[in-house]
Amino acid sequence: MTDTPQPLIEVHPDAAALATAVAGELLNRIADAQAAGHVPHIGLTGGSIADAIHREVARLAPASGVDWGAVVLWFGDERFVPADSPDRNVNQARAAFLDEVGAFRVHTAPASSEAGSAEESAASYADTVRAEGGGDFDVLMLGVGPDGHIASLFPGHPGLDATDAIAVAVHDSPKPPPDRVSLTFEALNRAQSVWFLVSGEPKADAVRRALAEVPAGQAAAALRETPARGVTGRAETVWFLDADAATLI
Ligand SMILES: O=C1O[C@H](COP(=O)(O)O)[C@@H](O)[C@H](O)[C@H]1O
């Protein structure tokens, strides 16, 4: 018996339709929270479908009524490279929408030009999360890799085992760049709404594995193989898919 809500699955015809739907829903959630006098905290992700969603947010933002001074934006993971690197998730999001909408309450893990090591960067990011209220995201968006990774928590990697930590350093990432900082399962699981964003046939098997029911005795192994199994929202978990990503469910 569990009180965790079952995941919802929303399938859109293609990546463009998925991006438009998620961007619109995100702007609605932010506007509704602000109308209720709340400053929402939103967790952003890197990756290809996130970039398309961010560009749709920029396009739809003017009509949304969102006050970008009253929303706090975070990244679930960041690449430990120089601050001006195009590989930084924050730089990709700045180019796609943050600069255009004028968002300025944006937090991410310090870059390699700002911290001596990925461990230092993770500790500093964790301090920022604590100082800003503990990382209770209203909406946390997570891209999913074809291997089932979310944020920078990769199958079989030591970061999966982190306890009593908000953020961890990641080395030898199977996807470049190799050095990264990621929020931990503990931190990611504090979100009210978790939205998985998945597009494309190469990710269909990761979606299948993430949503598959497994016997209790196999749950830990399944999570190590497919880290996306390890995050659920307190109020809702939604899988936003395009048709290609949904072919195996
Ligand atoms: O490296 C990363 O990859 C994932 C997914 O990216 P995608 O290009 O396969 O969509 C992303 O969620 C994560 O934030 C990022 O650092």
UniProtKB/TrEMBL annotation:
Pathway listed: Carbohydrate degradation; pentose phosphate pathway; D-ribulose 5-phosphate from D-glucose 6-phosphate (oxidative stage): step 2/3
InterPro entries named among the record's database cross-references: 6-phosphogluconolactonase_DevB (IPR005900), 6PGL (IPR039104), Glc/Gal-6P_isomerase (IPR006148), NagB/RpiA_transferase-like (IPR037171)
Reaction equations catalysed: 6-phospho-D-glucono-1,5-lactone + H2O = 6-phospho-D-gluconate + H(+)
Top EC class for this record: hydrolase
Keyword set, alphabetical order: Hydrolase
Function as written in the Swiss-Prot or TrEMBL entry: Hydrolysis of 6-phosphogluconolactone to 6-phosphogluconate.
Protein family per UniProt: Belongs to the glucosamine/galactosamine-6-phosphate isomerase family. 6-phosphogluconolactonase subfamily.
Name recorded for this polypeptide: 6-phosphogluconolactonase
Name of the gene this protein is made from: pgl
